[in-house]
Amino acid sequence: MKDLSYLKMPLRIDSALLERVLGVECSDASFDGISDVHGHNGNALLTFLSDPAFVDTVNSNPCIAGVFCHEPTRALLRDGIQPLVVDDPKFHFFTLMDWLAREHCAHFPNTIGRDCVIAPSASIAPHSVQIGDRVTIEPGAFIAPGTVLADDVIVRANASIGVDGFQHQRTSRGMVSPLHCGLLFVGARAEIGYSANISRGFSYRHTVIGADVKTDAFVYIGHGTEIGDRTLVCAHACVMGHVAVGNDAWIGPNSTVTSRARLGNKSAVSLGSVVTKDIPDGERYSGNFAIPHDRFIANLKSRLN
After folding, report:
1. SS3 37
2. Measured between alpha carbons, how far is 145 from 107 in angstroms, rounded to an integer?
3. Would you say 262 and 285 are in contact if contact means Cβ atoms under 8 Å apart?
4. CB 143 within 8 A of CB 129
5. I need a surface site. Which of 34, 56, 156, 264 has the fewest CB within 10 A?
6. What are the tens digits of pLDDT across the range 50-83?
7. What angle do CA 44, 83, 23 make, to 5 degrees?
8. Could you state, in order of their start, the residue ranges of all structural domains in the chain?
9. CA gap 209, 60 in Å, rounded
10. Which CATH class is domain 10-104?
11. Taking Cα atoms as reference points, which of 138, 150, 108, 144 lies closest to residue 124?
């Protein structure tokens, strides 16, 4: 497989680029890359802040060096953060993100390994797809650009993988739907279930499906999510963007995991649960909203009594 580590390199953003792309004039701007307020993909990142309620998150992130913001927010930023005062921070941020994606999106020749079985009705993008040895792709499956499949992966019928995720931002100047420029990595011997939908990476984080992961039918996995080795994701589960799932976890049928949640190694999510906070290693959570399984059962029994 081709070494794709270079795709993780940050992009230099300076005053000239900001003026050329956005018409924003600022002196001595120099950033490693662009990210949301949680990013750690560089030492000097540019982000945005529309709601001052999140200023503590920005100020506590040592990687943030610049912020698109409104004038009143300027005084709330810690020393070392350069304010870029604009009328609509969200518009400027996501417009810049879209431009960067279109200018620097991964574009490499397709490669297909040995002894693969690819159905004639499967659809593989004409570029930026890497397929390892002994991969099986069943009828009706769609493999989008930016997808990397390791050896012995199985993609079941009608699955769509490596597609752009659901990212649409309402701004004062209309809807901005930035292009996704990250990759989808699927580890060795993983199986993607029938009619599953898995998004490619977005912003600073690739989507990663670990080795020996098995996803069931109609599973959705959002952009930038990382799922550890040997994890099982059951039918109709919905795992939102930028989730981190450990190794040997279990995500039950019809469950939902909110964006940016962290599920530990050997953790479990019961069927139909809605997970809104982190789950520690080895813990099982149940319910809507999900709580530790023992508490869920105790609460249920108390109501029945």
Report:
1. coil
2. 8
3. no
4. yes
5. 56
6. 988 899 999 999 999 999 999 999 999 999 999 9
7. 95
8. 10-104, 111-224
9. 30
10. alpha beta
11. 144
CA 17/CA 84 separation, integer angstroms: 14
SS3 content of the chain, % helix, strand, coil (to 5): 20, 30, 50
| Helix count and strand count (H, E) for the chain | 4, 34
| Rg, Å, the chain Cα set | 21
Return the SS3 of 259. Answer: coil
93: tokens are 């941020």
Q: How far apart are CA 124 and CA 147, in angstroms?
A: 10
111-224: CATH superfamily: Hexapeptide repeat proteins (2.160.10.10)
Q: Find where tokens 């030492």 sit.
A: 43
Segment 271-285, tens digit of pLDDT: 999 999 999 999 999
pLDDT for 305 beyond 70: no
d(CA 187, CA 123): 20
Number of residues that make up the chain: 305
Alpha carbon distances (Å) from 184 to 21, 131, 215 = 28, 12, 15
